[in-house]
Structures are given as C-alpha cells and as structure tokens.
Specification:
The protein has 211 residues and is mainly α. The protein has 9 helices and 3 strands, in the order H-H-E-H-H-H-H-E-E-H-H-H. A 3-stranded antiparallel beta sheet has the order 1-3-2.
C-alpha cells in the first residue's frame, strides 16, 4: 500500500530540510498516523481507501432462505449496536476482522494493518416496503496491488484471479473487499438471529473430526 515508499521519501525530505535549516534533530514518525494501531484518527481521517458497500435484500428472500424476517434482523442489529457502544468499540461491526484477515493473507497485504482496517461500521435498516437494507463502511483500508508481498507466487495468483494484480487495480480490489465484508456481515448476523451460529461451529468440528 506504499507506506515503505512514503517512509523513504519522507526521510530524504527531512534530511534535506535539516541541511538547509537550523533544525538539530527530527523523528521520522510521531505515531499520530497510528499505523497498525486502533485510533480515532484512522477511524475519522484514515488513509488508503475508504469503502462503502450496501445492499437491499427483499423480505421474501430473507424469509425463504433464512427463515427469519427483516424485522428480526434489525432487532438483533439494534441490540448489538447498544452492546458495542457499551463496550466502547471504535467502529461497530460483527466481524470485519475475519474477512479482512483472510483476504489480506491470500492477496499479499500487510496483515498487521487489520488493526486499522477492521474499525468499520455496519448498518441495518428496514425500508418503507419492509425489505432489509444493509451497509458497511471501511474508513481506513491500506491496500496495494503492486510490490511487496503481492509479488509472491500464491498471493499474486490470488490477485490475478480477482483481476486485481498490477498497477491501477487498488480501487477494484477495495470494491471486492467491501462486497466480501458485507456478505460476511449478512452471513453472521442471520446465523445469530436464526439460532444457527453455535450449530454451524459444531457441524464444522464434526466434519474436521470425521476426516
């Protein structure tokens, strides 16, 4: 995502300024950027890409495939919102970190930047005709598609599968990440509402033991 290049360029600029002025000492980093740290600076101002993804799911689809109603999903989201506020979270979401970690590892991103990127917001509303509106916002998504670990064999192959390898593909990559994170939020929220969350974990464990 270009931070190494920024560091090198900033270091040269600071040294040049020091040579031309009476500055005796400088520090390359102040920690204000909060790189790889959770902070309101990154939540509000961020760096890299900012992503918003949204979807409207018809109530018939919710009922048919999840056996629950949009209102039940909203009620759960509202309860989780209150819990998030009480917990003092920076950002309110179900599990952005899970999807981001998987994508970052697979596609050669800096996994430590999950600390910045996971501080997003998930929102839920009921539309006037009773359908379900869901959205996610990731205000700080430091990603790249050139250099670094994106050139590693398997990571580069994953980027190629997504059509995101090479220069000028970071915005497309960010859009794909946004869609994936939104899908992940829909999945986990509906599993909580339908009472299938623990059941799914038990089934996965049984399959693992069976192998």
């Amino acid at each position: 995502m270009g931070l190494n290049m920024i560091v090198i360029a900033t270091d040269k600029a600071c040294k040049y300024i020091s040579q031309k002025t009476d500055i005796e000492k400088f520090y390359l980093r102040s920690n204000l950027s909060s790189d790889k740290k959770a902070s309101f600076f990154n939540f509000i101002d961020g760096y890299g890409k900012e992503v918003l993804a949204e979807a409207i799911i018809p109530k018939e689809i919710i009922t048919r495939y999840f056996n629950i109603s949009p209102q039940e999903i909203y009620d759960f989201w509202h309860s989780a919102l209150l819990g998030s506020l009480q917990g003092g979270m920076i950002g309110i979401n179900a599990h952005f970190a899970n999807g981001l970690s998987a994508i970052f590892l697979a596609c050669g991103q800096d996994i430590a930047s999950i600390v910045n990127a996971h501080m997003g917001i998930g929102e839920c509303e009921i539309t006037p005709n009773g359908d379900l509106y869901l959205s996610i916002k990731i205000p700080c998504l430091p990603i790249g598609t050139v250099g670094g670990a994106t050139t590693l064999c398997w990571q580069n192959e994953c980027l190629k599968i997504l059509g995101c390898d090479g220069d000028g593909k970071a915005k497309k990559f960010a859009e794909i990440i946004g869609a994936a994170i939104l899908a992940g939020e829909i999945s986990i929220i509906t599993s909580f509402v339908s009472g299938k969350f623990a059941e799914a974990h038990i089934s996965a464990r049984k399959r693992k033991i069976g192998r």
